[in-house]
């Protein structure tokens, strides 16, 4: 109890509270701006964190981290361009809801789900960090491969209704991510001796092109269509408590998926959001409405990606393995105070762990407030005349595409992805599978080939490990179950109009 | 021959590209002996290209059952112009710097997309590029491409 | 009237003269950009940003840090090499893009595409194993490798990186074999060691500082014991001479004005001697090792030749 009080004492100082607010606001802003994300945010404050005391520095960084993961959802909802890759799944239902004139409600669902997801994972961090960290060490490259293959089900799940087109889009995404350096041999692939191409096709410029640029081209092609004028309401609208009825299961499941995936270093919030969305699409009561502006879609994506934030601290603190640049920089601030991450951190510096716990709670609350206030401005954006809105969005998105690596090739990537995205969208190809493919590709390929190096080329050894075998069986079962159910259904002469793969 | 739908065209193009890339994976440059456990750099891409080939074929066939969509001349021109202006803008960012090309783009594009409120366009052109440039270059410290003619932008 | 006619060219002449003189004296009269060839938040980036503040003060101008990442740092190195040679664009180039990547494939630059300003850091690397590993020194590990050929997995952060080259050098010197398993960067390599996938890898000394609870060094890969790690035996102490520091320094595109180069060199030295920089280095147990431009150039050239030999022997250099 003393350590708990000490932890609370750590954060109840003016600098820390100020850092929480500043960090969260900044995080939401960089999250909202397409292309920019946590990394840019953390770079901006990096010089300050060197000179700040430890706790405020951590508060600042955690604020940016959580704020940016949440902020991405707002642009996904309002302009159909995920502000960060983590929010790509949020656009699937958030944007259709905004199109109906309910942007405020969509932001309400996203904000509430984000906050709950974030708080849930804070609980996980404080209650089960050492255990979860130990468990994550059971995940070697072979289990990562199995998890990656399992996550591929998402491609099939979000492609319902246009299965062949969706799968093609997904495989193209998987392929695009292989351009550039081959991690395992160091060779260049598909660069055709062009030096600029060796940097590869990276995810953020591709997302900027696929979503923001193609949106503009699509609207240019439809500009003669007179749209029925929608009365965009301004401000946030929180879902009523009764609206949550029947959705709590999805919420809990998504929080669990996010917390679990987050605890595996090197996976991340985008993967978590897609797995969770895909699970909602498989098992939600409202699964047939998913993709048309159904709250379940927003809940699953947003609670899962924010649940990653707390649990990503698990490997960072308990093992010293940062999952991304944000947690890597955070690790740096420990050194300043002579602290070593690792299992002993939890026994010897529990007050610090509790301080992080309180910071995360405060950040999630701050995030909610920032979202509620900011929604006023964000929803007003929809009232900007469309041509002006599109122009300004394209300019900012291109900066985002360029700013991540400062590499002009990324502007060209965004442009080509924009043309590609336009052609695909106009012809009924879903884009989300392509993003999922790009997110998962390197994890699947590298873990497969690393695994083959470790087993000295024996693929069967992949099936001799309990966790990977379980995941493979689960993958197979989920893919085959709808077919089986259909066959059984036919046998009984019942009609079956839901849940089948095609 | 009946008119083909765009889906068929997309399927056909991916089919051809896939076939070419698959052929390309046999380039001797990909023959390596180190660190492979028997699987070189094109092991995984080949699997993907295999799937892509089959799926492209399926999409191509699916497209035969879709009605070809008529595209008006006006639409084609508009989309073409938007594409061209955006392409020019992206080329301009590296050639003439971010600020100068953005001013031009922000001035032209809304007009192209059918917006005719001259006052608003001029206002946005005057304020937005400079504001954005300032925020990113000076506050976020993301160094944007500068023109060859001026020191700071 | 007459007077004014003469005075205009005279005034213009005086202005040109004044501007010319001012231009020569006042490097820098606009911000200097340092290109970091990796993403923000990594080790090279943080070191550069720590140095940038005190260095700017010594230079009497602004310094901005720009991250141009991709393809193992070669994109940023190429951008530095082809920047305008006026001293306003320089790069913080680490060991990889300078001395190993150019051997692995064709690049639009080589070490002689640059003018050298200073070496900004050089830290020992260390062969690390898990704290609970049965290996306590090189002899333990080599004995095991000889008794169980083909059993040891050696994690590397990237193909052709210094840890990889160091592993090749170690295997050759000790007459043993490793199965190299490439990961993407230090964090996943470390994870793979903790979960038992790999037995060892080579890390930067600051990594050892950060994770002292979970890893131990069995050999520092340095030809002498550095002040910040007096207690840790080197490979040389154990009979195998391996010297693989992880270093980086400031370079400029070839042909910058001598005056700008001298000013940058001086500012770099002053920055490195500042309290802010040396405190940060001390926290990471990194020694502050300044080299002037000429010494740094000679050092890079010799490392370039050394790594070429090792990479060629390993079959990684193709031509």
List the helices and strands and how they pair.
The complex is a heterotrimer of chains A (502), B (153) and C (319).
Chain A (H helix, E strand, L loop, with lengths): L1 H10 L2 H19 L5 H14 L2 H26 L8 H49 L4 H11 L1 H6 L4 H14 L3 E2 L6 E2 L13 H19 L26 H15 L6 H15 L11 H24 L6 H12 L6 H6 L1 H31 L5 H18 L5 H18 L5 H23 L11 H27 L10
Antiparallel strand pairs in A: 1-2
Helix pairs in contact in A: 1-15, 2-4, 2-15, 3-4, 3-13, 4-5, 4-12, 4-13, 4-15, 5-10, 5-12, 5-15, 6-18, 6-19, 8-18, 9-16, 9-17, 10-11, 10-12, 11-12
Chain B lengths: L5 H19 L18 H21 L9 H24 L1 H15 L5 H22 L14
Helix pairs in contact in B: 1-2, 3-4, 4-5
Chain C lengths: L1 H24 L6 E5 L6 H17 L3 E5 L6 H8 L7 E6 H10 L9 E10 L1 E6 L7 H10 L5 E4 L5 H13 L4 E4 L3 H9 L5 E5 H6 L4 E6 L25 E8 L4 H16 L1 H9 L7 E2 H21 L6
Parallel strand pairs in C: 1-2, 1-3, 6-7, 6-8
Antiparallel strand pairs in C: 3-10, 4-10, 4-11, 5-8, 5-9
Task: Describe the structure in your own words.
The complex is a heterotrimer of chains A (502), B (153) and C (319). Chain A has 502 residues and is mainly alpha-helical. Chain A has two domains: 2-460, no CATH class; 465-502, no CATH class. Chain A is built from 19 helices and two strands. Chain A has helices spanning 2-11, 14-32, 38-51, 54-79, 88-136, 141-151, 153-158, 163-176, 203-221, 248-262, 269-283, 295-318, 325-336, 343-348, 350-380, 386-403, 409-426, 432-454, 466-492; strands at 180-181, 188-189. In chain A, strands 1-2 form a two-stranded antiparallel sheet. The longest helix of chain A has 49 residues, at 88-136. Chain B has 153 residues and is mainly alpha-helical. Chain B folds into two domains: 6-63; 73-139, no CATH class. Helix content of chain B is 66%, strand content 0%. Chain B is built from five helices and no strands. Chain B has helices at residues 6-24, 43-63, 73-96, 98-112, 118-139. Chain B is flat, with a radius of gyration of 23 Å. The mean pLDDT of chain B is 87. Chain C folds into two domains: 30-123 and 246-313, Bordetella uptake gene, domain 1 (D-Maltodextrin-Binding Protein, domain 2), CATH 3.40.190; 125-229, Periplasmic binding protein-like II (D-Maltodextrin-Binding Protein, domain 2), CATH 3.40.190. Helix content of chain C is 45%, strand content 19%. Chain C contains eleven helices and eleven strands. Chain C has helices spanning 2-25, 43-59, 74-81, 95-104, 138-147, 162-174, 186-194, 205-210, 258-273, 275-283, 293-313, and strands at residues 32-36, 63-67, 89-94, 114-123, 125-130, 153-156, 179-182, 200-204, 215-220, 246-253, 291-292. Chain C has a six-stranded mixed sheet with strand order 2-1-3-10-4-11, with helices on both faces. In chain C, α2 packs across α9 (258-273) and α4 (95-104) packs parallel to α11 (293-313).
């Amino acid at each position: 109890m003393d350590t708990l009080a000490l932890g609370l004492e750590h954060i109840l100082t003016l600098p820390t509270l100020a850092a929480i607010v500043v960090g969260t606001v900044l995080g939401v802003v960089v999250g909202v701006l397409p292309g920019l994300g946590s990394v840019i945010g953390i770079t901006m404050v990096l010089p300050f964190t060197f000179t700040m005391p430890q706790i405020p520095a951590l508060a600042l960084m955690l604020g940016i981290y959580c704020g940016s993961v949440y902020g991405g959802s707002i642009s996904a909802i309002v302009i159909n361009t995920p502000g960060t890759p983590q929010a790509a799944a949020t656009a699937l239902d958030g944007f259709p809801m905004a199109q109906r004139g309910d942007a405020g409600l969509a932001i309400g669902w996203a904000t509430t789900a984000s906050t709950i997801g974030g708080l849930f994972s804070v609980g996980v961090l404080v209650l089960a960090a050492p255990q979860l960290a130990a468990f994550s060490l059971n995940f070697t490259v072979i289990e990562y491969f199995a998890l990656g293959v399992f996550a591929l089900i998402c491609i099939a799940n979000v492609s319902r209704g246009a299965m062949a087109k969706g799968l093609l889009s997904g495989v193209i995404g998987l392929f695009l991510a292989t351009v550039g350096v081959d991690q395992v041999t160091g060779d260049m692939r598909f660069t055709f001796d062009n030096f600029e191409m060796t940097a590869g096709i990276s995810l953020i410029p591709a997302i900027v092109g696929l979503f923001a640029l193609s949106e503009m081209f699509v609207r240019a092609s439809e500009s003669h269509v007179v749209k029925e004028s929608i009365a965009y309401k301004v401000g946030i609208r929180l879902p009523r408590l009764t609206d949550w009825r029947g959705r709590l299961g999805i919420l809990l499941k998504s929080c669990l998926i996010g917390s679990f995936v987050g605890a595996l270093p090197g996976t991340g919030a985008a993967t978590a959001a897609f797995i969770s969305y895909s699970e909602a699409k498989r098992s939600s009561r409202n699964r047939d409405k998913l993709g048309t502006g159904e709250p379940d879609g927003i809940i699953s994506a947003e609670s899962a990606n924010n649940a990653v934030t707390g649990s990503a601290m698990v490997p960072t603190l308990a093992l010293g393995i940062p999952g991304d640049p944000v947690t890597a920089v955070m690790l740096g601030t420990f050194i300043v105070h002579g602290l070593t991450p690792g299992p002993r951190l939890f026994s010897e510096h529990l007050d610090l762990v509790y301080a992080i716990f309180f910071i995360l709670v405060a950040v999630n609350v701050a995030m909610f407030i920032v979202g509620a206030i900011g929604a006023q401005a964000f929803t007003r954006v929809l009232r900007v005349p469309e041509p002006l809105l599109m122009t300004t969005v394209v300019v900012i998105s291109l900066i985002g595409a360029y700013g991540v690596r400062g590499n002009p090739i990324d502007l060209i990537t965004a442009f080509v992805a924009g043309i590609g995205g336009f052609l695909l969208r106009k012809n009924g190809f879903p884009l989300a599978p392509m993003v999922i493919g790009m997110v998962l590709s390197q994890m699947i390929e590298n873990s497969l080939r690393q695994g083959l190096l470790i087993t000295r080329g024996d693929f069967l050894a992949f099936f001799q490990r309990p966790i990977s075998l379980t995941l493979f069986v689960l993958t197979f079962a989920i893919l085959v179950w709808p077919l089986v159910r259909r066959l059984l259904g036919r046998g009984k002469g019942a009609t079956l109009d839901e849940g089948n793969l095609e | 021959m009946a008119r083909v739908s765009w889906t068929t065209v997309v399927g056909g193009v991916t089919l051809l590209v896939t076939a070419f890339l698959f052929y390309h994976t046999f380039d001797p440059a990909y023959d390596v002996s180190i660190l492979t456990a028997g699987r070189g750099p094109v092991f995984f891409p080949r699997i993907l290209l295999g799937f892509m080939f089959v799926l492209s074929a399926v999409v191509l066939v699916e497209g035969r059952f879709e009605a070809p969509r008529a595209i008006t001349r006006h639409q084609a021109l508009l989309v073409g112009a938007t594409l061209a202006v955006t392409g020019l803008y992206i080329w301009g960012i590296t050639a003439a710097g971010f600020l100068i090309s953005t001013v031009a783009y922000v001035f032209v594009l809304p007009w192209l997309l059918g917006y005719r409120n001259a006052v608003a366009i001029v206002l946005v052109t005057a304020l937005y590029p400079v504001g954005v440039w300032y925020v990113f270059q000076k506050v976020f410290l993301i160094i944007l491409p500068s023109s060859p003619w001026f020191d700071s932008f | 009237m007459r007077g004014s006619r003469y005075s205009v060219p005279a005034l213009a002449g005086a202005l040109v003269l004044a501007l010319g003189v001012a231009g020569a004296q006042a490097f820098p009269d606009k911000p200097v950009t340092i290109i970091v060839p990796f993403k923000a938040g990594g080790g090279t980036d943080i070191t550069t940003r720590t140095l940038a503040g005190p260095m700017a003060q010594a230079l009497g101008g602004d310094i901005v840090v720009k991250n141009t990442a991709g393809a193992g740092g070669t994109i940023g190195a190429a951008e530095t090499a082809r920047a305008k040679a006026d001293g306003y664009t320089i790069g913080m180039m680490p060991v990889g893009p300078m001395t190993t990547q150019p051997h692995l494939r064709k690049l639009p630059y080589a070490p002689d595409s640059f003018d050298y300003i200073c070496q900004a850091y050089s830290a020992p690397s260390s062969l690390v194993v898990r704290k609970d590993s049965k290996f306590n020194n090189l002899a333990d590990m080599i004995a095991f490798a000889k008794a169980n050929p083909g059993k040891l997995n050696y994690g590397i952060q990237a193909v052709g990186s210094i840890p990889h080259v160091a592993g090749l050098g170690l295997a050759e010197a000790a007459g043993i074999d490793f199965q190299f398993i490439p990961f993407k960067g230090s964090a996943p390599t470390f994870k793979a060691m903790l979960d038992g996938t790999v037995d060892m890898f080579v890390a930067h000394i600051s990594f050892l500082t950060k994770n002292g609870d979970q890893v131990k060094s069995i050999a520092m890969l340095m030809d002498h014991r550095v002040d910040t790690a007096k207690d840790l035996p080197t490979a040389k102490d154990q009979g195998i001479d391996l010297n693989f520091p992880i270093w980086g320094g400031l370079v400029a595109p070839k042909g910058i004005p001598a005056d700008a180069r001298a000013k940058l060199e001086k500012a770099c030295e002053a920055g490195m001697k500042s309290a802010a920089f040396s405190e940060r280095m001390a926290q990471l147990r990194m020694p502050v090792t300044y080299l002037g431009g000429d010494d740094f150039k000679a050092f890079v050239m010799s490392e370039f030749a050394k790594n070429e030999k090792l990479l060629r022997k390993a079959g990684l250099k193709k031509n």
